[in-house]
Structure formats: structure tokens, C-alpha cells
Structure prediction request, 153 residues.
Amino acid sequence: EDTEKVRTWLEQFCIGRGLDICTGDFPIHDDAIGVDGDDRKLGAHYNIQGEALTPIASGTMDYVVTNYFDCFPNPLQALLEWNRVLKPGGNLAFYCCNALAYLADGPMGPLGNRHRLSVFTDQTVRQLLARAEYRDISVVLLDKFLLCSAVKI
Prediction:
């Protein structure tokens, strides 16, 4: 149920031409350009890492969405790269684990999933987005997740 809520929330940002980072087998939107570093994923148009979008020209995308933000080894680098490919006024949307929601789940919390490399709080996401020069930053709590959106300056 939460997965469907998050997917519906992400879809609202898929207007125009854009990227679905870590698309897996099914892009978030029919027109999304899928990017996935796993060459076995069916939804990928580009089999490249989501924080190294070299084939994508700067300032050409209307949106970037992902449901795997907490899997990137360097979140700031990913945000800066996505900023590079977005047009001015382009939308960024992602969700990630809320570190504070997992305090009772044992010492590793969401990092028990070996694919996750980071967890975040509302404040750390806001700081990263501000540092990567986004505006209109929104972070909304949904159960154990943070729904994050911002606009390229």
C-alpha cells in the first residue's frame, strides 16, 4: 500500500521529458527515460549509474524522479548531477528512509537492507538540497519515508 502511495506521489512530477533513476523493470511513467546501473533491468534506456549521467546533456530534462535515493554512495554528488541535467525550473522528486522512524527497529534500522547506503532526516535532506542549489524544497513524512521534492534554481 505504501509503495503504491509513493508511486502515485512521484508520478505527479513526471510532466514533460524526464528521467526515472534506478527504474528497475518498470519506469514510474510511460514516457520516462529509464536509467539503471543494472543491465538486467528491463525499464532502463541507459545502463549507467544514476549519479553519472554523462550521456544526458545539461539542462535538457523537465524532471528527475527516483525511489532509490538512499542507495547512492554520495547523495550530494547525485543531487548535483541531477541538477546539471534539469532545465531551470525542472522538478526533482524522490523518497528515502526517515532515520528517526526506525529507532525501535534495532541498531541497523533501514541499513539492514544492504542496498541502502544512507538514511536521512527531514533536516539533512533539506540541507543537501539547499547545498545542491534547489529551491521550493518540500519534505513530507509518510510512515517511515520522507517524500522529497524541489525545483532547480
